C-alpha cells in the first residue's frame, strides 16, 4: 500500500542569491526551531558563488531546493509560495536569523486568536559578523494594524511574520514590480484585509550589511513613496494629517540609514536631504528639535571628520556589546 506523505504545518521560504557566507547559519536557525513540523523551501535565485553547494551539503529531509535564473526577491518569494503546501508560511532572508522559539510562539498566537491571520515578533539588528548592533522597534499591535503600519513598518523586515498561506494567495503574492519595500507593501495589503497579532519578544535577528537591498537609499526612497501613495489611494478615508507623519517617519528612517557605516560623502549628502524632508514633514518638529539637531551634528561630523564618526560609532558598539554580555550573564 502507498502511504501519502504528511503535509507539513508550516512552509518556510528562503530566497537566496550569492549568500555563501550566511546561508548555512540562516538555514540552521530554521532547522533548530522547537517547532519541527515544517518544510524549508530554498529558492536559489541564480547564485554565481558557492551558495547552492553550501545548501546541498546540509542533510535534512525537510529541505527542498529549487534553482532558477536570477529574477529578484519578489519573484523568488512568489516562486517559493507556489511550491509551499503548509497551512502557514514564513519568509526568511538568506542573511537573517531566527531564535529557536520563533515559529512555535507565532503559531501558538495565531491558534489562540483565530481572527488574526498574521503573527509578528520583534527584531534586533546584527552586523555582518553576527554581533548585536541595536534594538528594533518594540511596538505591540493586535487586531487592525493598517493605520499604524502606514505610519511606519513596525514589522521592520521581510523575515518576520507567520501568515496563513490562503491569505497570501488571496492577495496574489508579492508585487513583482517593486524594486524595494516589497515586504512593507505586502504587510500593508495584509493589514488592509486581516487582523494581526503580536508576539512581544525578540525573535528576528536582522543583519545589516553594506550590500543589502535596503542600502540603496535612493531606490528605497522612491519605492517607499510609491508604496505609501498606493496605500493612501486605496484607503482615502485615512486621516489626511497622517500622510505627513508617514513621510516624516520614512525620512527619519532614511536619515538614520544614511548615517550607518560605511560612511562616505554621497551618503552624507543623502542624509542631509532626508533630514530636511523629515523636518518639514514632522508635525512635532519643534518638540523633536533636539533629535533633529543630533542628526544634523552627525551629518556635519560626517563631512568634516568622518574618522571621528567612526570612532564614536565603534565606542558605542563596544559599550553595547559589553552591556549585552553583562545582561546575558545576569540572566544566566
Uncertain spans: 322-332
Whole-Å distance between the termini?
52 Å
Biggest β-sheet: count, sense, barrel?
Answer: 9 strands, mixed
Q: Estimate percent helicity.
A: 40-55%
- CA-based shape: globular
Which structural class do the helices and strands define? alpha/beta
Order of SSEs: EHEHEHEEHEEHEHHEHHHHH
- Number of helical stretches of at least 4 residues: 12
Radius of gyration (CA) equals 20 Å
**Using DSSP, what is the number of strands?**
9
Brief rundown of the structure:
With 332 residues, the protein is an alpha/beta fold. The protein is 47% helix and 17% strand. Strands 1, 2, 3, 4, 5, 6, 7, 8 and 9 form a nine-stranded mixed β-sheet that branches.
What does this 3D model show about the protein?
- The chain has 332 residues and is an alpha/beta fold.
- It contains 12 helices and 9 strands.
- Strands 1, 2, 3, 4, 5, 6, 7, 8 and 9 form a 9-stranded mixed β-sheet that branches.
- Helix 2 links the parallel strand 2 and strand 3.
- Helix 7 runs parallel beside helix 8, helix 8 packs antiparallel against helix 9 and helix 10 packs antiparallel against helix 11.
Amino acid at each position: 500500500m502507498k502511504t501519502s506523505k504528511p503535509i507539513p504545518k508550516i512552509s518556510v521560504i528562503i530566497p537566496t542569491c550569492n549568500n555563501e557566507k550566511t546561508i548555512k547559519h540562516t538555514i540552521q536557525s530554521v532547522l533548530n526551531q522547537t517547532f519541527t513540523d515544517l518544510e524549508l523551501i530554498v529558492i536559489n535565485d541564480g547564485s554565481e558563488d558557492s551558495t547552492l553547494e553550501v545548501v546541498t551539503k546540509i542533510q535534512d529531509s525537510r529541505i527542498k531546493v529549487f534553482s532558477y535564473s536570477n529574477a529578484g526577491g519578489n519573484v523568488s518569494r512568489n516562486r517559493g509560495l507556489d511550491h509551499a503546501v503548509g497551512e502557514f508560511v514564513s519568509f526568511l532572508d538568506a542573511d537573517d536569523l531566527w531564535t529557536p522559539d520563533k515559529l512555535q510562539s507565532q503559531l501558538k498566537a495565531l491558534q489562540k486568536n483565530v481572527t488574526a491571520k498574521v503573527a509578528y515578533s520583534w527584531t534586533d539588528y546584527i552586523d555582518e559578523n553576527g554581533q548585536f548592533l541595536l534594538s528594533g522597534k518594540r511596538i505591540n499591535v493586535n487586531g487592525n494594524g493598517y493605520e499604524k503600519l502606514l505610519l511606519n513598518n513596525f514589522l521592520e523586515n521581510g523575515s518576520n511574520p507567520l501568515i496563513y498561506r490562503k491569505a497570501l494567495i488571496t492577495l496574489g503574492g508579492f508585487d513583482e514590480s517593486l524594486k524595494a519595500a516589497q515586504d512593507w507593501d505586502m504587510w500593508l495589503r495584509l493589514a488592509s484585509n486581516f487582523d494581526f497579532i503580536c508576539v512581544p519578544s525578540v525573535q528576528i535577528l536582522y543583519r545589516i550589511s553594506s550590500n543589502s537591498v535596503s542600502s540603496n537609499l535612493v531606490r528605497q526612497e522612491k519605492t517607499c513613496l510609491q508604496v505609501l501613495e498606493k496605500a493612501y489611494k486605496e484607503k482615502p478615508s485615512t486621516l489626511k494629517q497622517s500622510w505627513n507623519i508617514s513621510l516624516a517617519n520614512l525620512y527619519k528612517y532614511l536619515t538614520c540609514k544614511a548615517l550607518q557605516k560605511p560612511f562616505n560623502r554621497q551618503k552624507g549628502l543623502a542624509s542631509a536631504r532626508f533630514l530636511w524632508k523629515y523636518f518639514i514633514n514632522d508635525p512635532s518638529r519643534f518638540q523633536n528639535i533636539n533629535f533633529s539637531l543630533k542628526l544634523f551634528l552627525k551629518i556635519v561630523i560626517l563631512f568634516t571628520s568622518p574618522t571621528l564618526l567612526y570612532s564614536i560609532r565603534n565606542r558605542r558598539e563596544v559599550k553595547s556589546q559589553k552591556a549585552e554580555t553583562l545582561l546575558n550573564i545576569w540572566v544566566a
